[in-house]
Amino acid sequence: VLGPRREQLACWSVFVFLETNRFIQEPQYYPSITLQLPHPTDHTGEIIQTALSGLDNIYQDGYRYNKGGVMLSGLIPAEERQTSLLDPYDREKIANLMQALDLVNTAFGPGTLRFGSQGFRRASWQMRQNHLSSNNNQGLMTEHQQVKRICELGQSTHLIRAL
User: CA 49, CA 53: separation in Å to the nearest integer?
Assistant: First the structure.
């Protein structure tokens, strides 16, 4: 489950950065960009699209990049999101889609379903997630509790069929 959805949050902006290795004597470049979203979102596809747009803006050929990342900011509780008549997305349909994706990945393992822009091969490296935000709301279920509840209610097949 993507961090914001796991913690029932939506983000207002996406920060994208690249870095070259400052310990090597070669050209250095440390670009970054913050992109504001028109509406707070927890939709993975929208976040990926925004991050890739930011990457297109800051990437330059000729540098050996050592590090890159994406950070989400302007986090608000997802249920406090205000909708707009001009929003191009059907938020209810997207919420059902993201819930189904999260349920399948919870039941069958992370990365069982993912977006094409995430690639098709499993990476041999692991991303560092040392600075994840935490939300210790008592109302949130653990992944084990979610899988158990999915199996009890038979929701996974129902949600997948609904899509």
Answer: 6
Spatial separation of the C-alpha atoms in residues 75 and 10, rounded to whole Å = 5
Question: pTM of the entire structure?
Answer: 0.67
- The closest alpha carbon to 52, from 18, 83, 28, belongs to 18
Residue at 146: amino acid letter? Q
Return averaged pLDDT per consecutive 10 residues of the chain, 163 residues in all: 75 95 93 94 90 95 93 90 76 85 86 74 60 52 46 41 35
108, 143 contact by CB (below 8 A): no
Contacts (Cβ under 8 Å, ≥6 apart) of 37: 11, 12, 13, 14, 46, 50
**C-alpha separations of 32 from 6, 116, 121, 162 in Å:** 26, 24, 27, 40
DSSP 8-state code for residue 123:
P
- Alpha-carbon span 37 to 41, nearest angstrom: 8
